[in-house]
Amino acid sequence: MSSTAFGSISLDGGCIWKNELKISKFRNRDGRKLFVRSSVASSPQSLQFAKTKTENSEKSVRIGVLGASGYTGSEIVRLLANHPQFGITLMTADRKAGQSIGSVFPHLIKQDLPDMVAIKDADFSNVDAVFCCLPHGTTQEIIKGLPKGLKIVDLSADFRLRNINEYEEWYGQPHSAPDLQKEAIYGLTEVSRKEIQNARLVANPGCYPTSIQLPLVPLIKANLIELRNIIIDAKSGVSGAGRGAKEANLYTEIAEGIHSYGITTHRHVPEIEQGLSDASNSKVTVSFTPHLMPMSRGMQSTIYVEMAPGVTIEDLYQQLSISYEDDEFVVLLEKGAVPHTRNVRGSNYCFMNVFPDRIPGRAIIISVIDNLVKGASGQALQNLNLMMGFPENMGLLYQPLFP
Ligand SMILES: NC(=O)C1=CN([C@@H]2O[C@H](COP(=O)(O)OP(=O)(O)OC[C@H]3O[C@@H](n4cnc5c(N)ncnc54)[C@H](OP(=O)(O)O)[C@@H]3O)[C@@H](O)[C@H]2O)C=CC1
Ligand SMILES: CC(=O)N[C@@H](CCC(=O)OP(=O)(O)O)C(=O)O
User: Fold this and answer.
1) Where is the Semialdehyde dehydrogenase NAD-binding domain positioned along the sequence (predicted)?
2) Atom of ligand 2 nearest to the CA of 261
3) Is 207 marked active-site?
4) Domains in the chain and their CATH numbers?
């Protein structure tokens, strides 16, 4: 047994045993990335004393969840229940301040956590890092007032657009924290790992932009697709709209039908175009139409592209395969297999595949995620793991829920 910055660990064969957590290490061929796969309850020491979770007091990083009474905040709380190093010491709410997490979300009733407080009453002296799960607009004001030493992953859209004029154009209000915007790193984990590792403030990507950029960025970087005529038809579960009551999100308005919204005007357009333009070093524009589906979680993006001259579907498939071969959470399915939102539900996975169109030279790309996990709280946790120097998959190896 030895002591490290992460607590005490012991070596056993090719694995590390940490408390009752089995951690097997995997490195890239070039030795760069370290991943772990972990499992509980089977270490030599723990066979008779299996614990299902590490107690908060044993964890090394103290976490604040701002907006814990919302969908993404409560999803962070759910995910952190199995995180060996992140322990929640502070949770905030607005209308629900003063309540316990279990009274607001009965599925979290077994979490032994402090009651939620209003942000104005929050004590950050006991916090090392925060997940900020608040509405955009509100967030920049709140982050401005946080202690400077905190690491922050912001799930809102407030720090995603580098150009604050563009922010004002699409979000209808001037940016009130331009200096913080300069500091923020856009956190599409698989694309910007190095920058995220050194960041203090990470702008977690939107759900639609995550599902769209993951397949397109490597194909654009490799010059395999044309930058014109990229058409994205995307569909989201209703939890993407948050928990706040809105007439448009009533069961009767959503059930037994689908509808498009934000046609040509959705605020994720500039975020998607920023990421694709970075990948190509030139201005990329896209046609993007989101749809609301009668399901609680899940997101599918179906993307129609033109292949570059001489490029085949096999080339696209090979490129995605190479780009993501070492990535835990991005899964290129076997050729011909169709990604399905049900198969990633509750997990941090993005499943994707490419298909030839009937029209020669065109391809159809399908990518699915859970909007609340890889599209929000899961990716946020993946990013904070990196920012705190932990393996990015720590506490995130939830298998999808099925059926
Ligand atoms: N839902 C999703 O799939 C995704 C959401 N996001 C983004 O993440 C952020 C959170 O989203 P989501 O969890 O869905 O939203 P919810 O509406 O479900 O939750 C919002 C949270 O913010 C709190 N809150 C609201 N207004 C204020 C305020 N003025 N001051 C302090 N706290 C406030 C609410 O408290 P209370 O309930 O107590 O009033 C609640 O805890 C948003 O910016 C959203 O755009 C990003 C990716 C995906
Ligand atoms: C179904 C639904 O309403 N989805 C939200 C996007 C959710 C998301 O990613 O939001 P942020 O960019 O705000 O973080 C929307 O279309 O505005």
Assistant:
1) 62-199
2) 16
3) yes
4) 61-204+377-388 (3.40.50.720), 208-369 (3.30.360.10)
